[in-house]
Structures are given as C-alpha cells and as structure tokens.
Design goal:
Order of helices and strands: HEHHEEHHHHH
Mean pLDDT: 91
Radius of gyration: 21 Å
Oligomer: single chain
Number of domains: 2
Low-confidence stretches: 1-6
Strand content: 5-15%
Structural class: mainly alpha
Largest sheet: 3 strands, antiparallel
Shape: elongated
CATH topology of the largest domain: Arc Repressor Mutant, subunit A
CATH superfamily of the largest domain: Winged helix-like DNA-binding domain superfamily/Winged helix DNA-binding domain
Strand order of the largest sheet: 1-3-2
Number of strands: 3
CATH architecture of the largest domain: Orthogonal Bundle
Amino acid sequence: MTYVRLDYMYMDIVILSHLQRGPVHGYELKRKVAATTAYALHNNTLYPALRRFEESGAVTKTAEAQEGRPPKHVYELTELGRELLHDMLADLTPALAADEPEFLTRVGQFEQLTPSERHGVLAARAEALRAQRTHLRELAGRTAASPRNHRWGGLVVAELTDRIDRELAWIDRLGAQADET
C-alpha cells in the first residue's frame, strides 16, 4: 500500500486569517489562535509558515525595539497575502475535501467567499463524503459476507456511515444558506 502525503493548508489559513485582523507578533499570534480555535499552534508550525509567507510577499516582518530585550518581530498581512488567503479558502481540492479540518476551516470563513465559491467548497466536500460512504458500504458488504464475526467492526462502519449521512444533510442546509450575505 502506498501512502500519499497531503499538504494541509488549514493551519496556513488560520495563521493568515488572524494576521488579517491586524499586525501582531509571533507569541501574540499563537495566543490568539489558541484563544479562538481548537488548534494548538506550535513554533515549528508558526515560524516556518511566517517565513514562507514573508519570502512570498504575503507577510511583512518588522522589528520593534524593546528596552533591555531583543527586538520583537511584528508580522502584517500584505495585499498579496489577502489574495492568497482568499484563494486558499476558495480552493478545496478533492484530496483536501476529504479532510474535516480543511473543510471546517473554510466553512468558518464563508463570509470571505462569494456564493459560488461557497457552493464549490460544499460540493467538493459532499463529493468526498459520498466517495467515503461508497467505500464504507463496500466494506460493510464484505464484512457481512465474511464467515468471521466482525460485529464490532460492523458497528464502527455503521456509525461512520451515519456520520457521513448527517454531514451530507448539514451540507445541504448550508447550501440553502450559501447565497446569503
């Protein structure tokens, strides 16, 4: 079996969205992310991302002098960074659509997207969920046909299928609201 590494974007989206609110230094950014999301932002995630954003022109970094201490670096989102954030929110690839945090991060910022972009994100997630549900149903069929008793595995598959069905119903409700401003 071959494993494919996905390049997750949701942490980059979270970082850029917080920078969108105004200039902030790294420690304060970590604190704000922790206070407003369920994400623990670690230095090994934050600072490489900020460096990438700075190198690409999406973020600027300035040093603020502090008496008796090293300078504090303050990061600010540029216009290019705002465009990058928008593009990241609007683009949900099939691989990323299967990842719940990727999807929920985008839904949480739907106010930044146009109605058609919102519908695109919802459609990508729905397609990924339907593919997962098909896989689970095939697995359930193989499990039921097996001479071995896979009772617990069957319960897990049934629960996962129910969760997918509930999320698809939620996506339908979101779709009905996606044209609202």
